[in-house]
């Protein structure tokens, strides 16, 4: 069964130019976040994707663990250039929209 996370390799998305593994490994991460946080992929741009999380982390410790995952996934998170676990964690607790941008 196809899921929203599966669309990136299906459309040949290559917006993550600094990620050498292609879109398929990203799909695995997006599927994990969908399972754990209800994070769906509503927006795909040239070098950016956004997720909408229906169950974002509510506690700082959980948000920090997820923030570390976000930072490994993409070097610029939140659509605001967030590059530190602490700032990403605060953002994750405040917003259900997760944005990633690869330059």
- List low-confidence stretches: none
- The tally of beta strands, per DSSP, is 3
Query: Major sheet, described briefly?
Result: 3 strands, antiparallel
Number of helices: 4
Q: Sketch the topology as an H/E string, one letter per element.
A: HHEEHHE
Shape: globular
| Percent of residues in β-strands | 15-25%
Mean pLDDT: 87
Strand order of the largest sheet: 1-2-3
Radius of gyration: 13 Å
User: What is the helical fraction, as a range of percent?
Assistant: 40-55%
Q: Which structural class do the helices and strands define? A: alpha+beta
Distance between the termini: 32 Å
What features would you highlight for this structure?
three-stranded antiparallel beta sheet; alpha+beta; 103 residues; globular
Please explain how this structure is put together.
- The protein is of the alpha+beta class.
- The chain has a domain at 57-98.
- It has four helices and three strands.
- The protein has helices at 7-10, 23-37, 60-73, 85-94, and strands spanning 39-44, 48-53, 97-101.
- The protein has a three-stranded antiparallel sheet.
- β1 and β2 form a beta hairpin.
- α3 packs across α4 (85-94).
- The radius of gyration is 13 Å and the shape is globular.
- The protein starts with 6 loop residues before the first helix and ends with a strand.
- The mean pLDDT is 87.
Give the helices and strands, then pairings.
Layout: H1 7-10, H2 23-37, E1 39-44, E2 48-53, H3 60-73, H4 85-94, E3 97-101
Antiparallel strand pairs: 1-2, 2-3
């Amino acid at each position: 069964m196809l899921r929203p996370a599966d669309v990136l390799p299906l459309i040949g998305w290559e917006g993550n130019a600094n990620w050498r593994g292609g879109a398929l490994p990203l799909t695995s991460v997006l599927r994990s976040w969908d399972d754990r946080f209800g994070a769906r992929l509503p927006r795909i741009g040239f070098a950016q994707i956004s997720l909408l999380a229906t169950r974002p982390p509510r506690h700082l410790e959980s948000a920090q663990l997820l923030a570390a995952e976000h930072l490994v996934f993409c070097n610029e998170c939140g659509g605001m250039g967030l590059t530190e676990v602490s700032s990403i964690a605060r953002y994750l607790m405040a917003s259900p929209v997760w944005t990633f941008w690869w330059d």
